[in-house]
């Protein structure tokens, strides 16, 4: 039976989208992006021994990806609008595959760090384009809600799967397979993209070079400054100068965009409450999920003494809860008031994070870790999918990449800020703990960080209840790519 068709072609020579193949393509793209944030973590000790990293240099295996990814997200989102969705998808996939192959073959620390930077560049294109393609392929209403539900499941659970996959590959094969694993995913995704993703986009080819440079520089300096807080305190001259420089670049970016004839970011897009509120909530949820995931992984390994593989398996309930929450949201969006769905999901996530804050060294998986994992993941799955649907509703197709890039940039920026700030909180509490037991001191630090995450998510819940508009049910009309 021929697959059903959604919408009409762009008139640019692209094939009519096949929804099933399109969804498989964008989910594979998003899977690679989120997997590579965490899949290398458990392999770092073996990487350091094999390639001879200098002390302190190993962190750049993670930071090179994060820095380039976060710094180029806005530009990556705009590339899709300017040069076409299919071209951007294929270019991003090809770059991801080549960078992953070179990373797996790396013989020196510099080669591996360069390959990770290449993966970050590819991710900066693939992350926004995966959401953009959903927006312009699936008509607003039930089809888009179902597609966003699948995309959200991958976006939330992929990080946990990365920890599990990294442990399996490192234990059973070799650390190089945490890089090689992307190659078969690219081989699978490329023909799907060629046969299903419409040409799309491809409007004016004018690229705001000055705006792109200022925006990229601001994001890159900000992410770099946040990453460096692991070595330099928040109050140090270096940290303050770096973050101050990022703020000045951001101001220069805004001033330039206001007068640019072809701006990278049309600032008037923020006149829509759904757009700016979705970005604020995405920033807060990004801080909560990245930091929460990080501290939960540390608690399992450093307090409960799980090995990397066991820690990854322990995150499977989190994946299941995220899938359940996203699936439920895809059925409820448009039927339930967005304030209840987003605010209620965030409230559940906040309660789960506060529950994590009660974990102690004598906690067990069944008696302590499982419950908050399920509550937090279901709540986050509900809220992320509903918030994404709100932020991308009624967006013109020629600005889909921009809005997608903004949402991804907000989530990435929130994750970087949250992790840096809460790492400082956890270290301070651990260092000042009134106990001689180092494991108990670590547990105290992680518990305080979880409590801060919970308070932040509950604040986001209140913000959603107060400000999320009551949106009318979307009309069933086909959107052209």
From TrEMBL:
InterPro entries to which the protein is assigned, alphabetical: MFS, MFS_dom, MFS_trans_sf
UniProt protein name: MFS transporter
Major facilitator superfamily (MFS) profile domain sequence ranges: 22-472
Alphabetically ordered keywords of this record: Antibiotic resistance, Cell membrane, Membrane, Transmembrane, Transmembrane helix, Transport
GO cellular component, one term: plasma membrane
Signal peptide (residue range): none
Topological category with respect to the lipid bilayer: Multi-pass membrane protein
Lineage: superkingdom: Bacteria
Regions crossing the membrane: 22-44, 56-76, 88-106, 118-138, 150-169, 175-197, 209-227, 239-256, 276-297, 309-328, 340-359, 365-386, 449-468
Source organism phylogeny: Bacteria, Bacillati, Actinomycetota, Actinomycetes, Kitasatosporales
């Amino acid at each position: 039976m021929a697959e059903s068709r959604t919408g009409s072609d762009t008139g640019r020579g692209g094939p009519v989208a096949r929804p099933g193949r399109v969804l498989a393509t964008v989910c594979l793209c998003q899977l690679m992006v989120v997997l590579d944030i965490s899949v290398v973590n458990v392999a770092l000790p073996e990487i350091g021994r094999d390639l001879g990293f200098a002390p302190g240099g190993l962190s750049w295996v993670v930071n090179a990806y994060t820095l380039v990814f976060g710094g180029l997200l806005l530009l990556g989102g705009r590339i899709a609008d300017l040069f076409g969705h299919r071209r951007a998808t294929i270019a991003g996939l090809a770059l991801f595959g080549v960078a992953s192959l070179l990373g797996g073959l790396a013989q020196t620390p510099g080669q591996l760090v360069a390959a990770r930077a290449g993966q970050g560049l590819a991710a900066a294109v693939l992350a926004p384009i995966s959401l953009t393609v959903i927006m312009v392929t699936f008509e607003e209403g039930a089809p888009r809600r179902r597609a966003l539900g699948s995309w959200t499941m991958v976006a939330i659970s992929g990080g946990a799967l990365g920890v599990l996959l990294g442990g399996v590959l490192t234990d059973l094969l070799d650390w190089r397979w945490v890089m090689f694993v992307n190659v078969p995913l690219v081989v699978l995704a490329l023909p799907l993209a060629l046969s299903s993703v419409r040409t799309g986009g491809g409007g004016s080819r004018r690229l705001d070079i000055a705006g792109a440079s200022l925006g990229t520089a601001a994001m890159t300096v900000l992410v770099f400054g946040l990453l460096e807080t692991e070595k330099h305190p928040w109050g140090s001259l270096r940290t303050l100068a770096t973050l101050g420089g990022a703020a000045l670049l951001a101001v220069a970016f805004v001033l330039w965009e206001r007068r640019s004839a072809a701006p990278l970011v049309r600032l008037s897009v923020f006149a829509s409450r759904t757009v700016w509120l979705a970005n604020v909530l995405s920033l807060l949820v990004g801080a909560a999920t990245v930091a929460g995931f990080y501290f939960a992984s540390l608690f399992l390994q450093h307090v409960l003494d799980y090995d990397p593989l066991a820690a990854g398996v322990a995150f499977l309930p989190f994946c299941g809860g995220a899938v359940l929450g996203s699936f439920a949201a895809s059925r409820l969006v448009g039927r339930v008031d967005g304030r209840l769905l987003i605010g209620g999901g965030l409230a559940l996530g906040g309660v789960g994070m506060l529950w994590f804050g009660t974990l102690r060294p004598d906690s067990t998986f069944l008696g302590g870790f499982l419950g908050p994992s399920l509550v937090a993941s279901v709540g986050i799955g509900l809220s992320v999918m509903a918030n994404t649907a709100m932020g991308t509703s009624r967006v013109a197709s020629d600005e889909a990449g921009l809005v997608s890039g903004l949402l991804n940039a907000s989530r990435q920026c929130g994750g970087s800020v949250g992790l840096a700030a809460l790492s400082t909180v956890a270290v301070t509490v651990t260092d000042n703990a009134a106990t001689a037991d180092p494991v108990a001191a670590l547990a105290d630090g992680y518990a305080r960080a979880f409590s801060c995450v919970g308070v932040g998510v509950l604040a986001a819940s209140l913000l959603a209840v107060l400000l999320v508009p009551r949106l009318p049910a979307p009309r069933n009309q086909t959107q052209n790519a």
